[in-house]
Amino acid sequence: MSSRRFLVPVIATIAVAFFAAPAAANPTACQSSHLDPSSENVVQVEQSVLCLVNAERTRRGLPRLRENDRLENAADKHSRDMVSRNFFAHDTPAGSSPSDRIKSAGYLRGARGWSVGENIAYGTGRFATPQSIVKSWMNSAGHKRNILHRGFSEIGVGVALGAPGEADRGATYTTTFGTRK
What gap in Å lies between CA 12 and CA 28, rounded to an integer? Predict the structure, then answer.
């Protein structure tokens, strides 16, 4: 059996209205950005993604993104769904889109205007670390646009162990971005 190592990023952005607000991040989380995701450290891996994304933003004078439980719920469910049903796309095989999932998670409830976006990626081996995933997003114009979008103020990070077609290896990442007013 050959050892395959790969990284696949994809992007989607849906926008309606914008505003930004600062948020704090765990200052030690970036120190764990080299971790290979496992059942023992998946929360730490998610925090590392948040730290790395916020580091990219603050390096450019942008406010940090705040964690949002509803966005995290949408991101986590999508990552797990992609692994369990062996697909890799923003739209599920049943046709659910990022905005559908974010709405189902309750994030848009009561909002007069909103903007949401999503980045997805998966990797195995050294390409499955938070550092590798965020680096690949920053090297992709569309992903980078989501990460540095001035209008986004909140984020949810979901990491599922396994990758589509590689359920016992790697990790699948989803970040959902949003703002409501």
Answer: 30
Q: Residue 34 — pLDDT band, cuts 50, 70, 90? A: very high
The strand order across the sheet containing 154-163 reads 7-15, 114-123, 166-180, 154-163, 66-67
Helices (H) and strands (E) in the chain, counts: 5, 5
Convert the pLDDT of each residue in 55-71 to its tens digit: 999 999 999 999 999 99
∠ Cα 118 119 121 (to 5°): 145
Closest CA to 146 of 82, 84, 90, 70: 90
Residue burial 54-74, b: 16+ Cβ < 10 Å; e: rest: bbbbeeeebebbbbbebbbbb
Confidence at residue 168, expressed as pLDDT on a 0 to 100 scale? 80
Which tops the pLDDT comparison, 146 or 22?
Answer: 146
CA-closest candidate to residue 80, choices 7, 11, 171, 12: 171
Q: What are phi and psi of 147, to 5 degrees?
A: -60, -40
The whole model's pTM is what?
0.85
Q: How far apart are CA 98 and CA 138, in angstroms?
A: 20
